[in-house]
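User: Here's a protein and a ligand (adenosine monophosphate). What would the complex look like?
Assistant: Let me lay out the input and then the predicted complex.
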Amino acid sequence: MTELIKTTSEIERVLSRSDRPIGFVPTMGALHDGHISLIKSSVNECKTTVVSIFVNPLQFGSNEDFEKYPRDLKSDLEVCRVNKVDYVFAPDREEMYPKKVEEHEIIAPPKELTSILCGKSRPGHFEGVATVVNKLFNIIQGDYAYFGEKDLQQLYVIRWLVKKFNLSIFVRACTTIREGNGLACSSRNKYLSKEEIGIASNLYKSLKLAKQNIRSGFFSISKAVLESLIFLSQFNEIKTEYFEARSKDDLSLVEDNVKSGFYFLLAGKVNNVRLIDNIEV
Ligand code: AMP
């Protein structure tokens, strides 16, 4: 049985008498196969699984899709029930931010992590993520937390958070789950038409192409990036925001002749729906 809990005091009360290890899966809801794979990992590994559903206003820019972000608690609860989640923690905004959101104390990860990739076009986003995840970690006091590699920069921010504040929680990174055509599952795919989903699958194709080109041995990183950008430029509906190679160690830039130990990461808009993806090389 999955129990829906809306208040901090109640989730703290039930978890204080729950069996450990406690696994925690933070989400913004509109659950899809990507979320389900995180839930399954937690249910496999832990005695108690908690999924949080909270669309965090702090991580959305003023020109972003906070208001129209897909919300469907009823169907999310059903997904959680089917997948044997013990508790769904779905606080409302006042529960998480009793003060005005703007007045809330913010956790600021280092610039090296927040000023690159998605951080460039989404100022304040990773500060919002770090702040809410820190609050949720403190409330849930879980043993393991599950995050998707799809949101790779977020994963590095969470690892920084855990290290910085010596949080006693293990972060588990889970592989990216994809649609049949390769497009990474995302709540924002709900904004796309069937045709746009087909077009969006070229984002992953461009990542695979870059990896293949590196593997061939004939391409430097900059040449591989250029080839992939040329590939993407044939689709008028796709506006690439960035396509970069970043070190596996800390997401810093890598030398042009490196052949492994890094990721290609991209962000692009398909008819104004912003999507991200990455591939390990
Ligand atoms: P969100 O609800 O978008 O904030 O995502 C909640 C968690 O699910 C994050 O850790 C994401 O990285 C993870 N996630 C989202 N999409 C996928 C995916 N396609 N595969 C694996 N994990 C995912």
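Summary: The mean pLDDT is 97.
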